[in-house]
C-alpha cells in the first residue's frame, strides 16, 4: 500500500475506449483522445499474482483497523470513499473492501460475531457488489437473509447481503457511502443504508448489531481458498475517505 500521484491513463475505461476509437479513424489528430487528470494523491493497493489475503503468502492487499474519530458513544455513523478498479480488472470470485466495525477487532475470518459486527463491502464475479455482514447470526431476521436480488447467510463465515444490488464500474471511480445505526439493545431494529454514486441501493431496517463503532480497512481477494487468488499482479486505488458521526 502506498500513496501515489494519480493512476495510469491506461486504467481508465474512458481513455482506453477513446484511444481505440482514435486509432480506427484515419489521420485522426492526437487530441481525439481525452487527457487523464493525475492531479490528486490517492492510495494504491497492490495484489500480487497468487495472493488471496494479507495473512497468506504472497501477501496481497491490506487489512488494518483505524479510529479516526472517537466513536465510543456513537449510535449512527457514516463512512464514505471512492474506489477505482482498472478497466481490465480480473474480479476472479470475490474480494473485500472497507467498512465499519464494532466490538472487538478481527470480526471476520469465521468469527462467531457474538460480541462484534463488521459491515465491509465486497465485490463478486463481474464486479457485483454486496454488503458482507458479520453480526450475531442467530439474531438476524429471515427477511435480512432474503434481501434482493440475492443473499446467502453462511453460518461459517459472513452474511452475503444484497449481492448484485449494485456494481463496481471498471475503469472509473465508484463512490460508496454506508450509514450504520445501532440497534436498540435486544431489538432487531438496527439499520444499514448504502449509497453508490449518490444513489441509494440498499436500505435495511432490521439488523442486530452491538458495540462501539470503528473503521476496518480491508481490501484483498478472498475468500481464503486458492480459487479466489488473483491470477496476475493487479492494483486498485482509493480516495475521498470520510467518516461522520450523525448521532
Give the averaged pLDDT, no decimals: 85
What is the N-to-C succession of helices and strands?
Answer: EHEEEEEEEEEEEEEE
Radius of gyration: 19 Å
Helix content: under 10%
Biggest sheet features: 8 strands, antiparallel
Note the beta-strand portion.
Answer: 35-45%
| SS class | mainly beta
Number of domains: 1
Q: For this entry, what is the oligomeric state of its chains?
A: single chain
Number of helices: 1
CATH architectural label: Sandwich
Low-confidence stretches: 16-26, 28-35
Shape verdict: globular
CATH topology term: Jelly Rolls
Q: What is the terminal separation in angstroms? A: 32 Å
List keywords for this structure.
247 residues; Jelly Rolls; 15 strands
Please explain how this structure is put together.
- There is one protein chain.
- The protein has 1 helix and 15 strands.
- The protein has 247 residues and is mostly beta strands.
- The two termini are 32 Å apart.
- Strands 3, 5, 6, 7, 8, 9, 10 and 14 form an 8-stranded antiparallel beta sheet that branches. A 7-stranded antiparallel beta sheet has the order 1-2-15-4-11-12-13, with no helix packed on it.
- The chain is 5% helix and 43% strand.
- The protein has one domain: Jelly Rolls (Sandwich), CATH 2.60.120.200.
- The chain has one helix at 13-24; strands at 2-5, 41-47, 62-66, 76-85, 94-97, 101-103, 116-124, 128-134, 152-153, 159-167, 172-181, 190-196, 199-207, 213-221, 234-245.
- Pfam families: Polysacc_lyase_14.
- This is Polysaccharide lyase family 14 protein.
Amino acid at each position: 500500500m502506498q500513496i501515489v500521484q494519480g493512476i495510469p491513463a491506461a486504467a481508465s475505461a474512458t481513455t482506453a475506449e477513446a484511444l481505440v476509437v482514435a486509432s480506427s479513424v484515419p489521420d485522426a489528430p492526437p487530441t481525439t483522445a481525452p487527457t487523464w487528470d493525475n492531479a490528486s494523491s490517492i492510495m494504491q493497493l497492490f495484489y500480487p499474482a497468487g495472493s488471496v489475503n494479507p495473512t497468506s503468502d504472497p501477501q496481497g492487499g491490506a487489512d488494518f483497523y483505524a479510529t479516526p474519530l472517537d466513536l465510543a458513544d456513537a449510535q449512527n455513523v457514516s463512512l464514505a470513499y471512492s474506489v477505482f478498479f482498472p478497466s481490465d480488472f480480473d474480479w476472479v470470485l470475490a474480494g473485500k473492501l472497507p467498512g465499519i466495525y464494532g466490538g472487538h477487532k478481527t470480526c471476520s475470518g469465521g468469527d462467531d460475531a457474538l460480541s462484534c459486527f463488521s459491515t465491509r463491502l465486497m465485490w463478486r464475479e463481474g464486479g457485483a457488489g454486496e454488503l458482507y455482514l458479520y453480526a450475531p447470526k442467530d439474531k438476524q431476521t429471515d427477511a435480512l437473509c432474503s434481501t434482493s436480488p440475492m443473499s446467502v447467510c453462511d453460518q461459517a463465515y459472513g452474511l452475503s447481503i444484497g449481492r448484485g444490488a449494485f456494481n463496481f464500474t471498471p475503469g472509473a471511480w465508484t463512490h460508496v457511502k454506508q450509514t450504520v445505526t445501532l440497534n436498540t439493545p435486544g431489538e432487531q431494529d438496527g439499520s444499514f443504508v448504502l449509497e453508490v454514486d449518490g444513489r441509494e441501493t440498499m436500505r435495511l431496517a432490521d439488523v442486530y448489531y452491538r458495540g462501539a463503532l470503528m473503521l476496518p480497512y480491508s481490501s484483498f481477494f478472498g475468500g481464503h481458498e486458492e480459487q479466489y487468488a488473483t491470477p496476475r499482479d493487479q492494483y486498485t486505488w482509493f480516495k475521498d475517505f470520510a467518516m461522520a458521526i450523525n448521532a
